[in-house]
């Protein structure tokens, strides 16, 4: 809890800026603004609650986001940015309390150009995608949680639909940013090119994203493609081959029957069979069909239109594991994994953890996925990570809220942009000694 004097002064300033409807100290609002999807992690679940906001602000423009940060800095109150709270590991939880800036009302799509779109941080990915489609364009990529905000995806996400071609969201997706530093008279600062990349995937610890410009590409007529197989080995081998087709897919996902059966019921996901799902260019449909049939699989359905693609997107990346967890609460933990060993040494990979089940995606260069298994404590999880490394599997342990991407660069930047350590405190820890070796990002 911050000092009463500082909080009262901050709340008064925020009400002057945003009006009474734009500021809340209600306990229920503060509680909702202080959690994210961290319950997906049994490691973090053991540590919750991690913090509780003292006040929540709801700016409606990028300029008001900057004004909220300026007010917090003036009164020495920590500030944590928040989008939809769809992150899974506590990055949006206000560990020291203070101010949470909920950006979801700052959702204007400011301008759409040839190959780019500018939107405020609270605009959702699905809304941006729908808007740019009207101009014959589409986003380079969007996360599996398509209702996430663009600011949240750039601050805490990595990849998703479109990653096969374009890589992660720090690999050219961002054209420019308007960011806010925690300095006296904080205001919008425009950065572009390489200077903008330093703020991506840093959880707002070096600057809060208020407005963003990201890349578009020409709209394609994507088709949803569903196939099934007797066994997961075949499904995974075919996934790797489909991921290498030209034109490249926008997404390819596959699951063993045990995970597929936990997904929402769909005639294209038959019980007892491994599932492969893809978003394909029409020019690749014949080749994908041949790969499935030649491997003894069955093409279950073809679906067209943007809603078909969206449905497949939300059944990718973390989401199948979330559905698996819902089917058997309290059982599963997961790790982010990558490499050809996921296909070539599948049985060995799944055997490193009790009840091992692998969800897999066609990645930018190699298959990537989520390995789930029975949670037996953090020490056992560390031994699983070591065993995967011996198999040639790249591993990222997501069960921590500390910035673990370009850490030294972010620390150096934050020394200038956040000299008092007010931006999302607890998330940029220079003494953090967690698992980075072999990270797949």
Give the beta-strand count. Answer: 18
Q: CATH homologous superfamily of the largest domain, by name?
A: FAD-linked oxidase, cap domain/gating helix
* Helix proportion range: 25-40%
Mean pLDDT: 94
Q: Extract low-pLDDT stretches.
A: 433-441
Continuous helix count: 17
Strand composition percent: 15-25%
The quaternary structure here is single chain
Count the domains.
Answer: 3
Features:
441 residues, alpha+beta, Uridine Diphospho-n-acetylenolpyruvylglucosamine Reductase, domain 2, Vanillyl-alcohol Oxidase, Chain A, domain 3, eight-stranded antiparallel sheet, six-stranded antiparallel sheet, 17 helices, 18 strands
Walk me through what this model shows.
The structure is a single chain. With 441 residues, the chain is an alpha+beta fold. The chain folds into three domains: 4-102, Uridine Diphospho-n-acetylenolpyruvylglucosamine Reductase, domain 2 (2-Layer Sandwich); 109-219, Uridine Diphospho-n-acetylenolpyruvylglucosamine Reductase, domain 3 (2-Layer Sandwich); 223-396, FAD-linked oxidase, cap domain/gating helix (Vanillyl-alcohol Oxidase, Chain A, domain 3, 3-Layer(aba) Sandwich), CATH 3.40.462. The chain contains 17 helices and 18 strands. An eight-stranded antiparallel β-sheet has the order 14-11-13-12-16-17-15-18, sandwiched between helices. Strands 5, 6, 7, 8, 9 and 10 form a six-stranded antiparallel β-sheet that branches. A four-stranded mixed β-sheet has the order 1-2-4-3, with helices on one face. The radius of gyration is 22 Å and the shape is globular. The two termini are 35 Å apart. The relative contact order is 0.12. Mean pLDDT is 94; it is low at 433-441.
